[in-house]
Amino acid sequence: MRRDHLITAKQLSREDVESVLDRAAEFDADPAAFGDRHPDAVLGLCFFEPSTRTKMSFETAIKRLGGDAVDMGTVESSSVKKGESLADTARVVAGYADALVLRHPSQGAAKMVSEFVDVPLLNGGDGAGHHPTQTLLDLYTIRENAGLDDLTIGIMGDLKYGRTVHSLAHALTNFDASQHFVSPESLRLPRSVRYDLHEAGANVREHTELGEILPALDVLYVTRIQRERFPDENEYQEIAGEYGIDLETLEDAKDDLTVMHPLPRVDEIAPEVDDTEYAAYFEQAHNGVPVRMALLDQLLEGDE
Questions:
Q1: Nearest 5 degrees, angle CA 109-CA 183-CA 147?
Q2: 279/277 Cα distance (integer angstroms)
Q3: Which among 37, 53, 265, 286 is annotated as catalytic?
Q4: Between the CA of residue 188 and those of 22, 157, 160, 206, what are the distances in Å?
């Protein structure tokens, strides 16, 4: 993995992943014990889209390491409203910080910005492209609950536009994982992603119904069916209703199935699942702090 930027999960080897996850486990065991790791380090937050978990966990992570964060604020309150380009905004914030996190609605934005800044850049999500730091916390959650080898995982929902899905699928090719993708035909994995997975030798199968593979799954990764992608509300309602889970859905699942979701959820996981042993999505959100601590620790060490 390049030490200066993390743009896509394709950069991550198995060794890279395990290095970050092992360090994250140390931070997770006692996060308050590392407050002097990077005193005075400053993390710049450039979020051009709304965010709760990614933004807050990065801010928490840098503060746990002894540093602090500067935030460009909302697009409406920034110089972007005056016509400032993305490259100029990033270069300005990079002048105030030791590392940057960028979230942007345009796919490829992080790669473009990486050519203009001279501090480590972390892609916090670029449109329907990639979200590699989410992938690392997803892998940490999977490792803690089911292990990353000899794994059978189902990934269900919006696979066409879901950047968390694209990143996770690529990263799992580093491990002995059988990947099953469940979605309506209109929201299948993009052809480019399917091609990359095939080239990587991944064990991949696609399905339109969860029931045919649910009993074999160790992990079920659920994503939101995005209403805004449907021109017809009735079509959305019909599809969304078929790709949600509740306790009745899980009757045929393994007792130790791990159910994950990158959040936010709408109605694709019924609240009744929250109090079961299946639910790992709030644990997954918590894991964003130690994993991002580990990633920032490595990148700032490399910079030093």
A1: 80
A2: 6
A3: 53
A4: 33, 9, 5, 8
pLDDT at 231: 67
CA distance 130 to 170: 10
Count of residues for the chain?
Answer: 304
> DSSP for 191-202?
HHHHHHHHHTT-
pLDDT at 74: 66
Per-residue confidence at 77, pLDDT binned at 50, 70, 90? low
Distance set, CA 220 to CA 180, 256, 260, 272 (Å): 9, 11, 6, 16
Annotated active-site residue 103? The verdict is: yes
Angle, alpha carbons 147-19-174 (nearest 5°): 55
Q: Of residues 201 and 26, which shows the higher confidence score? A: 26
Q: List the catalytic residue out of 5, 8, 38, 54.
A: 54
Structure tokens at 73: 């604020």
Q: How many CA atoms lie within 13 A of 26 on its CB side?
A: 13
CA nearest to 175, candidates 291, 20, 13, 8 = 13
Q: Identify whether 292 is a catalytic site residue.
A: no
Check 5, 55, 103, 261 and give the catalytic one. Answer: 103
User: Which one of 55, 104, 131, 166 is the catalytic residue?
Assistant: 131
